[in-house]
């Protein structure tokens, strides 16, 4: 979701407020405590045009719009309450790559921006190997206890 900051409001506090207003249940049950992990990118709109740039052009002293894309660390459990006029889409990163015509430049740049992180998958229950297919049993990998995202 997107929104505007209130006067005097910080970027992280504003992001948490906007996420709570847009995606938290109205009754407050199961509300998520949002954790901003990192700022992924900054986009600038120098004029009232469609184009955005990942940098502020040198001849612009005050851009008309500044968009910040943040990485939000989600808890293991939580509830999203998506308004009827919103559409929540779970798209894999490989689908976003080089698809600016479908998703726009900001969203299509996410695979490139996220490439500086190392993602470690979390397996809560390792699956036993199939002994019917091979005579030698293969030990399953040890389960990772917590999800880790490391910035390089």
UniProtKB/TrEMBL annotation:
Tree of life domain: Eukaryota
Gene Ontology terms: biological process: mRNA 3'-end processing
InterPro entries: Cleav_polyA_spec_factor_su5 (IPR016706)
Annotated Gene3D superfamilies: Nucleoside Triphosphate Pyrophosphohydrolase
Pfam family of the protein (one): NUDIX_2
Coiled coil: none
GO molecular function, one term: mRNA binding
An annotated GO cellular component: mRNA cleavage factor complex
Name this protein carries in UniProt: Cleavage and polyadenylation specificity factor subunit 5
């Amino acid at each position: 979701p997107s929104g505007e900051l209130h006067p005097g409001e910080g970027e992280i506090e504003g992001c948490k407020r906007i996420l709570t207003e847009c995606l938290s249940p109205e009754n407050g049950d199961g509300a998520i405590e949002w954790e901003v992990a990192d700022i992924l990118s900054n986009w600038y709109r120098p004029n009232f045009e469609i184009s955005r740039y990942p940098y502020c052009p040198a001849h612009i002293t005050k851009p008309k719009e500044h968009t910040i894309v943040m990485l939000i660390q989600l808890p293991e459990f939580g509830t999203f309450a998506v308004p009827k006029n919103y559409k929540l889409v779970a798209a894999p990163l490989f689908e976003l790559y080089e698809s600016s015509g479908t998703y726009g430049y900001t969203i299509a740049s996410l695979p490139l921006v996220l490439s500086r992180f190392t993602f470690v998958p979390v397996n809560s229950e390792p699956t036993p190997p199939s002994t019917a297919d091979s005579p030698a049993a293969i030990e399953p990998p040890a389960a990772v206890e917590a999800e880790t995202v490391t910035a390089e």
